[in-house]
Design the sequence.
């Protein structure tokens, strides 16, 4: 089984954006749980996109 990594600009921005949201102390200062939810979800989506796992939306 061969795994290829699909790294493009969107994946990099998603991963870096998730880290920025998690570790920026003044961002969403009043809503700290919301900051963690947004940051962790961005990191999860970035890692999933990195390995080629996509979320399919069924209309």
Sequence:
């Amino acid at each position: 089984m061969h795994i290829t990594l699909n790294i493009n600009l969107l994946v990099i921005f998603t991963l870096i954006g998730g880290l920025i949201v998690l570790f920026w102390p003044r961002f969403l200062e009043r809503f700290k749980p919301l900051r963690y939810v947004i940051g962790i979800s961005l990191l999860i989506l970035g890692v999933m996109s990195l390995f080629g796992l996509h979320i399919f939306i069924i209309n």
Q: What stands out?
A: The chain has a mean pLDDT of 80.
